[in-house]
Amino acid sequence: MKKILFVSNSFGVDSTRYFYGVSRAVGKKVKVATLYIGGCSLYRHYRNMLSGEKAYAYYINGMESGLMVSLKEALLSDEWDVIVTQQCSPDSGNLDSYFPFLPELAAFFRQCAPKAELHIQRTWSFAEGCPRFGKTDFETREEMIPAVREAYRKAAEAVSADGIIPAMDVMNKLYDAVGDATYRDGFHASFGLGRYALACLWLRYFFGKSPSGNTFRDFDVEVTEDEVLLAQRIVDEVMECNG
Question: Is the CATH number 3.40.50.720 carried by domain 2-241?
């Protein structure tokens, strides 16, 4: 069984909602725990690390558990194979916002879970015209996307991350194909297609398994068969380009 802890925010909940299901559909055993605070930045994760506050809602295998935990409690609660984190989306294109918080967090993760790999998820841009751009230094996707890509590259390099999960690339291609249906509000992944595409990405990224032919269909909202096939194809294309 692969055990993954995601120190995250709402984008983390989006990414892991269906991951357990799509993994189980191909016989892959996984435990994925997601630490959730809405809009949580690396700075806030760092402050929580220092305070030890039980500030996180604890999701297990895509479902809310009702538990509130501290960062240290979560890190010590199991022998994690992988720890994932990410910057909050409004700050994701601002490299300065990653420091010194990400290196301090990475050191803490490695201290508490010395056998775990560290992966960074590259978060996605917003729908064109989304009011959320007002919280960033950007006005358009064209401006935001390259800045986010470069910030994550440099941040991951600075902490010697074991890999970057290309969630932005998947969401970009999905947006190019279906537009606003990628999101539920202009920036969070849609409850069906968007979240499913992210789950397929995690399947391919962590297990090397193409989502093509995956039989999982237990969605919270309707996802058509054409949409399923689209998400699967996009993930395979992105992962082939990302090696």
Answer: no
